[in-house]
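User: I'm curious whether this sequence folds into something compact or stays loose and floppy. Could you predict its structure so I can see for myself?
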Amino acid sequence: MKLLKKLSEIIEKIEISHAWFTTFSFSPAFFEKYVLASLFNIEPSELRRLEDYEAINEQLKTVNVKVFYDPVGLNVTESKKTTCDYIPVYFGLRNLEKMEGLFHPKVCFLFGTNKEKKKTTAYLITGSANLTHQAWGRNKETVFVDEIDKKNGERIHNFFTEFFPDTQMLLPKGWYNSLRKDNSNWIFRYIFKNSDNFDGNNILFKDFVEEKELYVWSPYIDADMINLKKEINISGKITLIPGFKNAKIILSKEEYNELSKYFHFMKDERNDIETFVHGKLWLSETKLCIGSWNFTKAAVCGDNFEAGVIIEGNFARFKDGLKELKIEDNHFMTENELKEEQLPKPNKIKFECTVIADWLKRQYEIKINTNKTLKINLPDSEIEINGERDKIVPFINIKKLGIKKIYEVFENEKKVFTGYIQEINTDYRPVYGYSSLNELLNNFSFDKDSNKRQGERYLYGEHNEESGDHYQLKTDNDYINYYSLFYLTESMIIKIEEIETIDRKEELEKKLSEIAYSGANSVEQLVTLAENWIENNIDNKLVMCWFLQNETNKIVRKINNIIKDKKLDLRELDYVKLNESINDKFEKINKINQKWIDYVRA
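Assistant: Here's the prediction. I'll summarize afterward.
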């Protein structure tokens, strides 16, 4: 992937603080495994399981990464494995209320500090490539990459502000004033009809109105451009180089014949007609435009939100591979094929819905601007909205949220929107860890002398001579033994006591957060796994359930005693209540318990 390699080269030069992306088509699976991994110098081959992505989540705590996408172009079949912010851009709302097109720009903005020069720097990657595997790996795309100067920095700042008002807060004030001097031969350009900067005359075509010749590479072409050419009164010759997909152009024979009366068609011999050429390029004698603009009226007149760069210079070499287009009937798409290739219609949803998972408060914050009655499916619950603009919903099952980060909105039992949950205060988020209590307990069960799992001795048939009890370590997730449980309790209490001795406030809070909430062996994860185990086994393993509840609560009380903010107290379990008839069994097990406490403390 050439583009991924280019991104990696930039990452080697700068210490990134912000990485913001815009895209139309969006594949979260591709973005997380390749682009995010590249941002944080992680090999994609290392990302196989959900827990492998925790390395990325740690990095996301210090680097501001956001993806802005059109909901129409989202691949909702893919799961979200990280805490990265994926923010839909809704047309038809706020300053976008008159928009009739698509959110279509493909921009990557990287901001940070030059590692060698120790100065503020920023880079721009823009062109035709969406955040998908096809765009970065298989298609032929046009892409522009360069360091940003002061003039273009301000333009890029304004671009993000158009659809993301929080830009002003999340980027340093006047950050672009610290960039290199204005000596670039290119200018960043964005167009959409309802922008404060749109005066009705700055459509893309007018940048080339006085050029004698204009060459346009575009996979999508529409007949409305005939009327636009007449309206603007462009007298220069316009040559179109259509992109091929599966050896066909994305036009019917009738459309091609009509367009041929006003535009000259050529073929780029450098492109294999079997490979989808998705690149968009506008070329004249003195200018080159690389961006997201197709040769369609919606793109060039501002119905769509588009962006790219216009470069000054002589780029005649780009015409070297052009030859007359000799097209046969089998090079045109059928009616059904054209329907499949049609760009999606704009999302007509007339409300905005955002779901934020707050890990500090352990609740969802639902923000919605409609008076309609809607149903929202969250990862762990289902709620109804009856005209409320804001709603708070407590977490019910944090494990489900860790695995499924999607919410769905229904109106009259019909799904009208699917989006990704945004996450805040992720320092308090538990990492994706063990799938069962058995795994968690066994992780702690190490022989201190041999650095070998103590439990393995029981796996091979060893037993406690004094009590006569046999503690075989079974592989099924429903089995736990007293040794592992008592060992875990004392190990975690020792760890908490060690944390209590830390003097530095910042380090104390970090370590406390890890063992209480966010670490792989956190107390919160123990509570969740213990609760699930008790619910599944209370009918036939009552004594073990009682001990598990008792030992878990002992750890919870220990950690709660040193948490300053009582709102964050971890809850104790209260499932099992025993009568006195089984006290004899308790006395026997408590002897074993004390033995392992002595062993751990030794």
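Summary: The longest helix spans residues 482-500. DSSP finds 18 helices and 26 strands in the chain.
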